[in-house]
Amino acid sequence: MHTTDRTWAEIRLDHLAHNYAELRRRTAPGCKFLAPVKANAYGHGAVAVSRHLQTIGCDFLAVTSLPEALELREAGIALPILIFGYTVPTDASTLVAHQLTQAVFSLEQAKALSHALTGSRQTLQIHLELDTGMGRLGFPVATPSIEPLEDLRTIMTLPHLDVQGIFTHFSVADLEEEDDYTEEQLEHFALSAHWLEAKTGKQIPIHHAANSGGVLRLSRSHLNMIRPGLSLYGLSPNPGLIDVDLRPVMSLKTRVIQVRDFVTDRSISYGRTYQTRGTQSIAVVPIGYADGLHRSLSGKMDMLLHGRRVPQVGRICMDFSMLHVTGLEKISVGDVATVFGQDGKETLSVAEHAATAGTIPYELLCAISARVPRIYSHGAE
Ligand SMILES: *Cc1c(COP(=O)(O)O)cnc(C)c1O
Predict the structure, then answer these.
(1) Is this model's pTM higher than 0.85 or not?
(2) Which of 186, 201, 232 is the last residue in one of the domains?
(3) How far apart are CA 53 and CA 67, in angstroms?
């Protein structure tokens, strides 16, 4: 049994390095690069991706939870790691022991982390998160109240915490028509960070805000660290951005396991949503929603086979889906079908499938499940 016998994801580390260089090229010298590797590096495999990023000079990684961070430490990744999500205060000493950096988004959370380290000689590195308009986590500094700022000032004085960074997150930085909103977010961020530094007389070393949209569209938002995720994996957050050369890091492939000719009026798959019209060749491929192929794509998507687009027909099952291959030269068991990626001159992008499914490429990438092996390569040469 080989890992490419059934269904697999090909991960091009040379494309990852290319995208990294392409994004880094847009920043000023000295600007740090934080790579979000949460959600198993957007489905690409957090350990292998982080290891490669470490060798090509990436400065920082970010995950969403302590278990995600510990997986990287256990694999020997030494880069600083920021945890964007919540960590229970009783795990504060675990954070310190593994040199992890925690995002802090409330005074209560900061006090609890500090308190949990009482009596120890440990200091936890934290980054303060400001909510400037994302409406998710953070100190609501865009509100006309001084209270969140005073809370930030209090945190700067708490024992066992070292404020190493301050950041905010954009909600619409990918959209040109929303630039005023993003500019406003950036403005609130700059004012708050400046106020805090002036009031406390302490410089916070790292200021960051730019997700992919910010990196590609608003160079003023780069500050001294960028945090591009989707674009690092080779997808544009906005298909209108054409002056950037991003290469998809992941391709998803599977292999034909049966081909049959059906006479007319036969039903294909659950629910009988598809009937053959005339004699039709139907190929079965072993990929289904348990592999991360969204069932909502049923009957709406194409795959590539022998360098040609072929329609997927009938309901996508848990483990299988069917392709209409009538008219193609002889299809055999073992032939590779490309779900997204390149086959000859044809390319299918995960963005196209996402649009068809009414979602975003992020969701389809993260959905690729654990039973799909990731095969890493540095290209054909
Ligand atoms: C996921 C994430 C990013 C990366 O966003 P992309 O749109 O993938 O570039 C940046 N910052 C935070 C806080 C995130 O959660």
Answers:
(1) yes
(2) 232
(3) 20
